C-alpha cells in the first residue's frame, strides 16, 4: 500500500475507507482515484453509495436482489445503477442472468480513493469533493448505527469482539501523517487476511479517521 501524499478517503463505499475495507469482489482494476467533479457528484448520492458498497462487498447481484438489500423500487435501483455505470463505477454482468428478465451488475473496482481538492482547484471540484466526502462520512455513521441495532441479533462473541473509541493527541502535521499511515496499514493488513469469505467469517467494517481538531 503506497502512502498518499495528502489525506485521502479510500472507501469500498464507498464503503464505507467499504466499506469499509472488505472482500475485493471487483473484476477489473482494484482501485479508482476520483478527480472528475461529475463522477464525484454522481457517487455522492446516498443510494448510489449503498449500491456500490453492496456490489463490492457481496459481489455481482441482480436488480431484484439489490432492491431487497437497499429497500428501493426496481425502477429507482436501475436508474441509479445506470448513473454509476455512466461514471465507470459498475458494469452489467449479462453472463450471470438466468433469463431475459434478469439484469445483473458488478462493481468495476474494489476501492474508491478521494483526495481533498487543492485550495487553488476550480470551485466546482472543491464543492464536488467536499460533497462526496460528506456523503461517505454519513454512510459511515449509518453503518455504525445499524451495527448498534443489530447487536441484539448477534452472539455475545461477535458483540464482544467489536470495538469503537477515540483519543486526542497533540501532534505535528508530520506525526499525524505517520499516524494516518499506520491506521491505513492496520486496515490493509486485516483486509488482506480477510480477503476471501470462509465458513466462519462475516463481513467486518473497519472505519478510521484521523484529523486536526478545530
Structure summarized in a few sentences:
The protein is 45% helix and 9% strand. The protein has 214 residues and is mainly alpha-helical.
Tell me the layout of helices and strands.
Blueprint: E1 9-11, E2 31-34, H1 37-43, H2 46-58, E3 61-62, H3 63-70, H4 74-86, E4 90-92, E5 104-107, E6 111-114, H5 123-150, H6 156-161, H7 173-193
Parallel strand pairs: 2-6
Antiparallel strand pairs: 1-6, 3-5, 4-5
Account of the protein in words:
The chain has helices at 37-43, 46-58, 63-70, 74-86, 123-150, 156-161, 173-193, and strands at 9-11, 31-34, 61-62, 90-92, 104-107, 111-114. By secondary structure, the chain is mainly alpha-helical. The strands form 2 sheets. It has a 3-stranded mixed beta sheet with strand order 1-6-2. It is globular and about 60 Å long. It starts with 8 loop residues before the first strand and ends in a 21-residue tail after the last helix. Residues 1-7 and 14-28 have low confidence and may be disordered.
Amino acid at each position: 500500500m503506497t502512502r498518499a501524499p495528502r489525506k485521502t478517503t479510500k472507501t469500498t463505499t464507498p464503503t464505507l475507507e467499504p466499506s469499509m475495507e472488505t472482500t475485493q469482489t471487483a473484476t477489473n482494476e482494484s482501485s479508482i482515484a476520483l478527480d472528475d467533479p461529475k463522477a464525484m457528484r454522481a457517487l455522492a448520492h446516498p443510494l448510489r453509495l449503498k449500491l456500490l458498497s453492496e456490489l463490492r462487498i457481496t459481489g455481482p447481484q441482480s436488480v431484484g436482489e439489490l432492491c431487497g438489500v437497499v429497500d428501493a423500487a426496481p425502477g429507482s435501483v436501475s436508474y441509479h445503477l445506470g448513473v454509476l455505470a455512466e461514471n465507470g463505477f459498475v458494469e452489467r454482468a449479462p453472463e450471470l442472468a438466468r433469463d431475459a428478465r434478469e439484469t445483473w451488475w458488478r462493481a468495476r473496482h474494489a476501492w474508491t480513493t478521494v483526495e481533498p481538492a487543492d485550495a487553488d482547484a476550480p470551485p466546482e471540484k472543491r464543492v464536488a469533493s467536499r460533497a462526496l466526502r460528506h456523503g461517505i462520512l454519513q454512510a459511515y455513521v449509518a453503518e455504525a448505527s445499524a451495527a448498534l441495532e443489530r447487536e441484539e441479533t448477534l452472539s455475545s462473541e461477535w458483540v464482544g469482539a467489536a470495538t469503537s473509541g477515540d483519543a486526542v493527541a497533540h501532534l505535528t502535521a508530520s506525526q499525524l501523517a505517520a499516524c494516518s499511515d499506520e491506521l491505513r496499514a492496520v486496515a490493509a493488513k486485516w483486509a488482506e487476511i480477510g480477503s476471501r469469505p470462509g465458513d466462519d467469517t462475516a463481513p467486518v467494517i473497519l472505519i478510521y479517521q484521523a484529523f486536526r481538531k478545530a
